[in-house]
Design brief:
The structure holds 2 protein chains of 2 kinds. By secondary structure, chain A is mostly helical. Chain A is about 75% helix and about 0% strand. Chain A has a two-stranded antiparallel ribbon with strand order 1-2. Chain B is of the alpha/beta class. The chains are: A mainly alpha, B alpha/beta.
């Protein structure tokens, strides 16, 4: 929050003092505005979702029914889809982003690093709907033909692996959605990891190399511990983006309500459900249930970020 | 830099003064292309433009109720009691059809015959293979592949889904009791694609898939479509004359509030999954000039827009229905007790 005890520099001319006061108020106003906007969003989402929360109570969180005809709504399917895709995409993107960043900082010859950096920026700049269309028209058919079909033909559907990898072979599923999400969060994470690694003082690294460490040992024992707090922040940033991503997921997840039964099963996320149904929701309860979903996404994101703060505090010690 | 900025502001000011006389509307995405074509030609003739936002039928109903637009547009007609409660009047503009499309190797468009009841069983997940006896019974002599059926439906709420599920509910009692009819329903099986494009893409990519799209998409993508059995027991192909036949045989005069679904009409030539798209305006116009503009625009569309509609694969309303509706406007849309529109 804005600090109130900021003193203006002593002995400054009076004109400067007025400037300081204006500056302080401007900053305080910006901070207040941000808090007010945040509070406004969450309060209006809660009020909008209240009819649904009242009607379905705690069952709204646990029921997998989503039936606009009978006006019975439950959010368990979209919640599960949101959490699974977000964490799965993180699982895929994290090692890749680390790899990219370490390569750029430690091993990459200068003339290649420029073009890789541009490629990373390009990936970050592509709008999500383009990823969605690419996923729908290119990735999904390829995945169906070269991954799902061979699995469907060679893995016994009654084994654990068969159950985990079951589903309609057309590439629109939880896993491909996570893959698209991973590609989308990768550039952000890689770019920030790279910046973080560059903050490690060269003397420390040179000292480690001087002691005879290999590059892997330097990364593991010197660089990563030095930037661990920042890394957790990066992971949470990626996770936050994956939780809320809408258009790309809507195109490729298959949009089946209810709980996904396998990794290659169609599902839905909170964001994709809202995007799909909000424009055509005619009944008040339907609208309310969708706003309630928005509120839940807000809460989930908040919990994730609060968890990140907690990890940061532990990492400080 | 400053000059460009001033020029831009000036341009905006001019645009907004010109827009003052324009008609504003919002709603269904399905008729948006035809309204856009009509608006272009209408503006060239009269100088009055149309600002139509294709935000979906549900959005159109919300916007007209909130009085932020001159008219709302919906693929799903409002029931007479809903109309009365909101003080609205509705009328149809153009007709279209919903077509089951599939991905079956070795099967030509129109080679597979389906009935409404069977389509319901397929979408319920009861019939799961293409060579199931129920499908074979309707398609003697057709080499049906031994493929699992993948159902593809719309993921977004849609007037197309409303027509399709309403039709299934009419023909299949199990569908009516277990799923029902709406813009979005709880689909018992299958996966959802976003928009007609999404459904078309998933059907194209999945061998053994069946989905449903608006006629224009099926035609433009040269999709493998099914012949559907209509109320008269005939198997018909989806095409403009079949939609027109459905529109012509519908009971327009006996439908209070123009609440009319063109599904499963009795004509032997009728395509069974036909539907009209509707315009919503206030019965008692807050601003008579705006109300008159809206009706004049659609009068122009009725009189001169048939060719433009047909070029986009929409079917115009039958001439007698248009005449009837124009007479209705004079009675039903008023401002302070006086009609805002005079039928010619």
């Amino acid at each position: 929050m804005a600090r109130t005890d900021t003193a203006s520099p002593q002995g400054a001319p009076p004109g400067h003092a007025t400037g300081e006061i204006v500056f302080r108020f401007a900053c305080a106003a910006a901070a207040t505005f941000l808090l007010a906007a945040l509070a406004g969003v969450i309060i209006s989402l809660f009020i909008g979702g209240l009819p649904a929360f009242r009607e379905f109570g705690f069952g709204f969180l646990t029921s997998t029914t989503w039936n606009p005809v009978t006006e019975v709504y439950g959010a368990a399917g979209p919640i599960a889809g949101t959490l699974i895709t977000a964490f799965l995409s993180l699982l895929i993107a994290l090692p890749l982003a680390l790899g990219v960043a370490v390569f750029l900082v430690e091993f990459c010859p200068a003339r290649i690093s420029g073009s890789i950096a541009i490629a990373v920026e390009l990936l970050a700049g592509i709008p999500s709907i383009v990823y969605g269309m690419w996923g729908l028209f290119v990735l999904a058919p390829w995945f169906a033909a070269h991954v799902q079909m061979p699995i469907a033909m060679h893995v016994d559907p009654d084994t654990f692996l068969g159950k985990l990898l079951g589903g309609t072979p057309n590439g629109a599923n939880i896993f491909t959605a996570s893959l698209i999400l991973a590609i989308m969060i990768l550039p952000y994470m890689a770019a920030v990891f790279r910046e973080l690694f560059l903050t490690v003082p060269p003397q420390v690294r040179e000292a480690a190399y001087g002691l005879g460490c290999t590059p892997f040992e330097v990364i593991r024992a010197v660089v990563i511990p030095y930037v661990r707090r920042g890394m957790i922040g990066v992971v949470m940033l990626g996770l936050g983006r994956a939780l809320g991503e809408t258009m790309a997921v809507t195109f490729i997840i298959g949009n089946a309500h209810g709980f996904p039964h396998s990794l290659f099963d169609s599902g839905s996320t909170i964001a994709s459900t809202v995007a799909n149904e909000f424009a055509e929701a005619t009944s008040d309860m339907h609208t309310s249930a969708l706003i309630a979903l928005g509120f839940l996404l807000f809460v989930i994101t908040f919990v994730v970020l609060a968890f990140a703060r907690l990890l940061l505090r532990e990492a400080k010690v | 830099m400053f000059k460009t900025f001033v020029a831009a502001i000036g341009g905006l000011a001019i645009a907004s003064t010109a827009a003052a006389a324009d008609i504003s509307g919002a709603g269904a995405t399905f008729p948006a292309p035809v309204y856009a074509k009509w608006a272009e030609a209408y503006k060239a003739q009269t100088g009055i433009g149309l600002n139509y936002q294709a935000i979906g039928s549900g959005g159109g109903i919300k916007q007209i109720k909130a009085k932020t637009v001159d008219f709302g547009a919906s693929d799903k007609p409002l029931k007479p009691d809903e109309l009365a409660a909101a003080g609205l009047y509705q009328f149809p503009t153009v007709v279209g059809g919903v077509v089951p499309v599939m991905n079956l190797p070795g099967i030509r468009p129109g080679q597979i015959k389906l009935s409404g009841a069977l389509l319901g069983d397929i979408f319920l997940g009861k019939v799961t293979r293409w060579n199931a006896p129920q499908i074979a019974a309707l398609n003697r002599g057709v080499p049906l592949p031994n493929l699992p059926i993948t159902v593809v439906h719309r993921s977004d709420g849609s007037g197309t889904s409303f027509l399709f599920t309403s039709y299934l509910a009419m023909k299949n009692p199990a569908w009516a009791s277990q799923v029902g009819a709406s813009d979005s329903v709880q689909w018992p099986t299958g996966l959802g694609g976003k928009g007609n494009d999404g459904v078309a893409a998933f059907v194209k990519q999945t061998t053994g898939a069946i989905g449903y799209v608006e006629y224009a998409y099926a035609k433009q993508n040269r999709s493998t479509y099914a012949l559907m059995q209509n109320k008269a027991g005939k198997f018909v192909a989806p095409a403009a004359p079949a939609f027109a036949a459905a529109a012509a045989s519908a009971p327009w005069l006996r439908s209070p509030g123009n609440y009319i679904l063109l599904l499963d009409q009795p004509s032997p030539a009728a395509w069974p999954i036909t539907g009209a798209t509707f315009i919503l305006v206030y019965r008692n116009q807050p601003n008579p000039a705006d109300g008159a503009q809206v009706l004049k625009f659609f009068e122009w569309g009725y009189n001169k827009g048939d060719g433009l509609a047909a070029s986009l694969d929409y079917v115009p309303l039958p001439a007698n229905v248009k005449g009837l509706l124009k007479k209705q406007w004079a009675r039903s849309v008023t401002a302070g007790g006086k009609p805002v529109y005079v039928a010619k």
